[in-house]
Design goal:
Blueprint lengths: L1 H14 L17 H14 L12 H13 L5 E8 L8 H5 L8 E8 L7 H22 L1
Antiparallel strand pairs: 1-2
Helix pairs in contact: 1-3, 3-5
């Protein structure tokens, strides 16, 4: 269902030649103890390292979006953004509703032009996993 919906949206923006900014979260959910446990199970099942600071990305949606935007000639770059909270980390929307806002937020942004991205689906998946390895190391150093 998601794929069909995304196809329609992406194709629409490609057809009308309208620039598109799309936020995609390959990890798929908030970082909680429960989601971390699920991520570690995924890592074990797939022979991947367990992470402390990030969840493993699920690359199917990411590769689909990149491929579809490329086909429609509507992809300029992928911006990889890592977010760090040095004081309090809001775990869920509930924290924000209760006024537990972060006192400070740090962003690391890296722009990857479309020409710097791998072409094959397998290489693009590996590329995404490598970005998450970098995020893990970056956040480990930060904290």
């Amino acid at each position: 269902d998601d794929q069909s919906h995304f196809e329609d949206i992406i194709d629409y923006f490609c057809d009308i030649r309208e620039p598109l900014q799309l936020l995609l979260f390959p990890e798929g959910t908030d970082f909680t103890e429960n989601s971390k446990a699920r991520s570690n199970e995924f890592a074990e099942k797939n022979g991947l390292p367990k992470y402390e600071y990030v969840l493993h990305p699920r690359t199917t949606g990411f590769t689909f979006v990149v491929e579809r935007l490329r086909e429609g000639k509507n992809l300029d770059a992928v911006h990889d953004i890592t977010v760090a909270y040095p004081h309090n980390i809001p775990q869920t929307e509930k924290h924000l509703v209760l006024g537990d806002f972060p006192k400070e937020i740090h962003f690391h942004v890296h722009r990857y032009p479309v020409d710097a991205l791998p072409v094959s689906r397998e290489d693009l998946q590996l590329w995404c996993h490598r970005r998450w390895e970098e995020k893990e190391e970056r956040l480990r150093a930060f904290y």
